[in-house]
Amino acid sequence: MKIILMRHGDAVYSGSDGTRPLSEKGKSESDAAGKFLRSIKEIPDVILHSKLLRSQETAQLIEGVLGKTQLLRLHHGLKPEDSASYFHSELLTEIFNNKDSNYTVMVVGHEPFMSTLASLLVLRSPFGLTFNTGTILGAKCFNPENGWDFCFFVHAEYLIRLYS
């Protein structure tokens, strides 16, 4: 079982929070993340995103780069102020109820939610990791009692240098 976490790409600072689109930098970050996932053959079975536009656009761009359709799924518990602890439990239930050991869930969300969720998964603490825009983390789990192992944790600037 695998999970991929990504903070949405950089967004334009105008309008209401829910309607802020990706900036050109954010589009580049999302495109590079999709190319990275494709190059390491980590294709998610589902991409969960929030209802906020920048998260939706990030998920759509990644899906497009991966050459897949119907991966996207709106999830109402991914806003910045939502409980990462509650989502963590819900996510683990979804992942471990799936019998495919290669099942991969990608989550595109916001701060501080993403840092807390990542820290809960791989550090077993709500503190420790920080996500800049476009940052992407991958982890795998063979046994729920042993926790999650890092596969990758890559900053967007590095991905842009590699894939632009």
Query: What strand order characterises the main sheet?
Result: 3-2-4-1-5-6
Q: Which CATH class applies here?
A: Alpha Beta
Multimeric state: single chain
**Most strands sheet:** 6 strands, mixed
For the secondary structure, the number of strands is 6
What characteristics describe this protein?
164 residues; alpha/beta; Rossmann fold; 6-stranded mixed sheet; 18% strand; globular
Structure, explained:
By secondary structure, this protein is α/β, with parallel strands linked by helices. The chain has a single domain (2-163), classed as Phosphoglycerate mutase-like (Rossmann fold). It is 38% helix and 18% strand. The protein has helices at 24-39, 53-66, 84-97, 113-122, 156-163; strands at residues 2-7, 46-49, 72-74, 104-109, 136-140, 149-154. It has a six-stranded mixed sheet with strand order 3-2-4-1-5-6, with helices on both faces. α2 links the parallel β2 (46-49) and β3 (72-74). α1 runs parallel beside α2, α1 crosses α5 and α3 (84-97) packs across α4. The model has no long low-confidence stretch (mean pLDDT 92).
Please outline what is shown here.
This protein has 164 residues and is an alpha/beta fold. The protein has five helices and six strands.
Produce the secondary structure layout.
Blueprint (H helix, E strand, L loop, with lengths): L1 E6 L16 H16 L6 E4 L3 H14 L5 E3 L9 H14 L6 E6 L3 H10 L13 E5 L8 E6 L1 H8 L1
Parallel strand pairs: 1-4, 2-3, 2-4
Antiparallel strand pairs: 1-5, 5-6
Helix pairs in contact: 1-2, 1-5, 3-4
